[in-house]
Amino acid sequence: MKKFTKIICLLAALCICLTCAACGNAKTESGTPSSADSGKKLVMGTNAAFPPYEFVDDNNNIVGIDAEIAKAVADKLGMELEIKDMEFDSLITAVKSGSIDIALAGMTVNDERKESVDFSDTYATGVQVVIVPENSSIKTIDDLEGKKIGVQAGTTGDNYCTSDYGQDHVKQFTNGALAVAALANGQVDCVVIDNEPAKNFVKANKGLKILETEYANEDYAAAIAKDNKDLQEKFNKALKELKDEGKIAEIIEKYIPSEQ
Ligand code: GLN
Q: Ligand 1: which of 111, 192, 194, 219 to mutate, judged by most atoms within 8 Å of the beta carbon?
């Protein structure tokens, strides 16, 4: 009997020790400064159907200008980059809810979005252009009146066309490839989308061209939650260093070679 009591006492003591050790660990972990960096992981959201900014390559990896810029920033911050692919019009909500830390998606900075999220410094520019069939009667932006316009849901192209020509004339698609496929099938008369993806889509589909007149000029930046000033500052600092080192220009040149 006495022996048993001794063993139980020993076991109880051991349990207490282990519990204390566990408590100690938890305390140091939650107290480390890295908690502000989501445990050293930078979770980026994007819509990987927007070449050359983001697309899925032959090895099933998400690559492109945004993916490489985010990786270069994460490297500078000593963080590991994780990329989550989602629909473009879910990105702002995902940043707000914290399910992603940052969104890089060829995303245009505008006042409406600034009400929901903060933006980093800008790292690229974009132009809204119009894609039409080669034999189209649409020659300039003025000819869009009364036409059926394909757009990507929730994009600036969608906003401009809806307010300029009315919702009845705008057909929303979940991504640019689907909008361009509808144009190739004759379901819409034109597609309004960012210029670099437009060039990619026109190259991939015969019989389409881009109008020379531009719809709008825009700046791209990363969206970050309003209460995450720490990440915004760190991102901007790393981005500035990368700009100064010529790394951003190098990444853009890799995907959008300047014409010689
Ligand atoms: N630049 C456009 C926007 O921010 C489109 C971006 C995209 O479709 N990925 O609305």
A: 194
Give, for all 260 residues of the chain, the pLDDT tens digit.
455 555 444 445 444 444 444 443 433 333 334 444 546 899 999 999 999 999 999 999 999 999 999 999 999 999 999 999 999 999 999 999 999 999 999 999 999 999 999 999 999 999 999 999 999 999 999 999 999 999 999 999 999 999 999 999 999 999 999 999 999 999 999 999 999 999 999 999 999 999 999 999 999 999 999 999 999 999 999 999 999 999 999 999 999 999 75
Locate the ligand 1 atom nearest the alpha carbon of residue 193 and give its number. 5
Name the superfamily (CATH) of residues 126-218. Periplasmic binding protein-like II (3.40.190.10)
Please tell me the residue having the least CA distance from ligand 1 atom 8.
Answer: 155
Fold agreement between 38-123+221-255 and 126-218: yes
Distance 224 CA to ligand 1 centre (A): 16
Q: Rounded CA gap, 134 and 140, in Å?
A: 13
* Nearest residue to 104 via CA among 115, 93, 116, 120: 120
For the chain, give every domain's residue range: 38-123+221-255, 126-218
CA distance 213 to 215: 7
Could you tell me if 150 and 190 are in contact, meaning their C-beta atoms sit under 8 angstroms apart?
A: yes
User: CATH for 38-123+221-255?
Assistant: 3.40.190.10
Q: How far is CA 77 from CA 73, 111, 173, in A?
A: 6, 29, 36
Pocket of ligand 1 (CB under 6 A): 47, 50, 88, 105-108, 126, 152, 155-156, 194
CA pair distance 11, 8, nearest whole angstrom: 5
For ligand 1, the distance from its centroid to the CA atom of residue 82, given in whole angstroms, is 21
